[in-house]
Design goal:
GO molecular function: hydrolase activity
GO cellular component, one term: membrane
CATH superfamily: Alpha/Beta hydrolase fold, catalytic domain
Shape: globular
Strand content: 15-25%
Distance between the termini: 41 Å
Organism: Halopseudomonas xinjiangensis
CATH class: Alpha Beta
Radius of gyration: 18 Å
CATH topology: Rossmann fold
Strand order of the largest sheet: 1-2-4-3-5-6-7-8
Largest sheet: 8 strands, mixed
InterPro entries: AB_hydrolase_1, AB_hydrolase_fold, AB_hydrolase_sf
Keywords: Hydrolase
Helix content: 40-55%
CATH architecture: 3-Layer(aba) Sandwich
């Protein structure tokens, strides 16, 4: 199994296809496996790299605190080690946060960003939001991981016909290391790069499920603060949009990547000349 060391942590990754590089970043408690509906579709045209972030999947699970910036720094090491020049970055949920962190810290790295059901900050601002954050932290630390996994699976896949998806994801979440999962959850709360969004200079696609946790209006607000960015809403989808609406999600991603390529081509030709 391919691994590389980033900042003292061995990271598992997959690498398939040829063409411009695309890096897929999973969400909290997830892994490379949850991109299974995207890798084949994307690798027909691109070099697709999926990575298990530290504390997740088949990567090392070091003790101590984690941070979104730390995850991003690991990702920078991965792009350098695999010689991924100007990769397209795609992240869901926590993975979208990591993408935002990388793009604001290193605006020269990404050729484009695709952010799915995520935001550039997780800072509660209203009493109700503080209560929700506190409840999630308390329950996550108090309940067994199996109970958390069962509850999340029901929220993400509420339909009767999604029983197989519920069972699959519940089993996968139960495989998480509890301490690493909680450290990753704590890394999210209070994080923000919203004041540095003007540093992002690449095209940005924001995809939202119509039934995602975060209201669509909140996503519209931060999209307006970005330069070359637009929002696409996928109907009949919750938080795990690449899983519950894979074909629609893949179509949006592929169209966006092609547009990003074509917009870069004239500049590349001028530079080459």
């Amino acid at each position: 199994m391919p691994h590389l060391t980033a900042n003292g942590c061995r990271l598992y990754y997959t690498d398939q296809g040829q063409g411009e590089p695309v890096v897929l970043i999973h969400g909290l408690g997830s892994s490379t496996r949850d991109w299974e509906n995207q890798t084949d579709a994307l690798s027909e045209r691109y070099r697709v790299v999926c990575v298990d972030m530290r504390g997740h999947g088949l990567s090392d699970k070091p003790k101590g605190n984690y941070s979104i910036k730390g995850f991003s720094d690991d990702l920078v090491c991965l792009t350098e080690a695999l010689d991924l020049q100007r990769p397209h970055i795609i992240g869901i949920s926590m993975g979208g946060m990591i993408a935002f962190q990388l793009a604001t810290d290193h605006p020269d790295i990404p050729a484009s960003l695709t952010v799915i059901n995520s935001a550039p900050e997780v800072r509660p601002k209203r009493v109700k939001e503080y209560a929700m954050v506190a409840q999630r932290l308390v329950l996550a630390h108090a309940l067994p991981l199996s109970v958390t996994a069962r509850g999340l699976a029901r929220v993400l896949f509420p339909k009767a016909e999604q029983q197989t998806l519920r069972e699959t994801f519940e089993q996968r979440w139960c495989e998480n290391d509890r301490k690493a999962y909680l450290a990753s959850l704590r890394a999210i709360i209070g994080w923000s790069v919203v004041e540095r969004l003007d540093r992002i200079c690449c095209p940005v696609l924001v995809i939202s499920g119509d039934n995602d946790y975060m209201p669509i209006e909140r996503k519209r607000e931060y999209v307006c603060r970005l330069g070359d960015a637009h929002l696409e809403v996928i109907a009949d989808s919750c938080h795990a949009t690449p899983v519950d609406q894979p074909e629609h999600c893949n179509r949006l991603i592929l169209d966006f990547l092609r547009q990003s390529e074509s917009s870069r081509q004239p500049q590349q030709e001028i530079t080459g000349a």
